[in-house]
Amino acid sequence: QQPVQSPQAVILREGEDAVINCSSSKALYSVHWYRQKHGEAPVFLMILLKGGEQKGHEKISASFNEKKQQSSLYLTASQLSYSGTYFCGTQGAGGGNKLTFGTGTQLKVEL
Amino acid sequence: DAGITQSPRHKVTETGTPVTLRCHQTENHRYMYWYRQDPGHGLRLIHYSYGVKDTDKGEVSDGYSVSRSKTEDFLLTLESATSSQTSVYFCAISEGQGYRVMDTQYFGPGTRLTVL
């Protein structure tokens, strides 16, 4: 079952902040975040591991609540370049090298 | 950028015809994946491979088969294409260092397939 992302879409003015949420019904080992610009391939942003370790992007932060199987991506002082569709990918608690992706959050940053 | 190419990049075919998509990597990564991307569904895993001749099903594998005879190539075959298989197909690779830690996935440029 795919994780649920919210909101489905958001429009920001440059400089505003946004939070994108990802929620799973299964126990998780890690959460991965990707961004995809229109017509392009998804690009890795960040990995959040069980136990709190975070790896990834300098200008974007995230959290992972293992007990609630939820992750949030925080975009602060948004830039035009942040526009795109954001996907979370979840790795189940049993491990294994595969991800289940959410349906995506479309983010548009305007002047 | 990770060395991943997909071919063809665009294809239009008719219902009932066989179609093979190719993913080629130059990174010598262990894992390779095929996803399809459709509006409202995000990325859904079709099949993946964890080594030469080692493959497993994903969540939407019906109607698709895969083969990996060399580390660098991962083929996705639609034996008899249907209109419901019209989609954008992405290949991805990951290094696969260990079982517990899921490595970063690097995606290819995608193949847009239209089945008429």
Describe the structure.
The complex is a heterodimer of chains A (111) and B (116). By secondary structure, chain A is mainly beta. In chain A, 0% of the residues lie in helices and 56% in strands. Chain A has no helices and eleven strands. Chain A is globular. The model of chain A has no long low-confidence stretch (mean pLDDT 91). Chain B is mainly β and 116 residues long. In chain B, the strands form two sheets. In chain B, strands 2, 4, 5, 6, 9, 10 and 11 form a seven-stranded mixed β-sheet that branches. In chain B, strands 1-3-8-7 form a four-stranded antiparallel β-sheet, with no helix packed on it. At the A-B interface, strand 4, strand 5, strand 9 and strand 10 of A face strand 4, strand 5 and strand 10 of B.
Oligomeric status: heterodimer
User: What's the Cα radius of gyration of chain B?
Assistant: 13 Å
- The topology string of helices and strands of chain B comes to EEEEEEEEEEE
Mean pLDDT of chain A: 91
Total E-strand runs of chain B? 11
- Residue-averaged pLDDT of chain B, rounded? 94
Query: Radius of gyration of chain A in whole Å, from Cα?
Result: 13 Å
Name the poorly predicted regions of chain A: none
Q: What portion of the residues of chain B fall into strands of 2 or more residues?
A: over 45%
Topology:
The complex is a heterodimer of chains A (111) and B (116).
Chain A: E1 4-6, E2 9-13, E3 18-23, E4 28-36, E5 43-49, E6 54-56, E7 60-65, E8 70-75, E9 84-92, E10 100-101, E11 105-110
Chain B: E1 4-7, E2 10-13, E3 19-25, E4 31-38, E5 42-51, E6 54-57, E7 64-70, E8 73-78, E9 87-94, E10 106-107, E11 111-115
Parallel strand pairs in B: 2-11
Antiparallel strand pairs in B: 1-3, 3-8, 4-5, 4-9, 5-6, 7-8, 9-10, 9-11
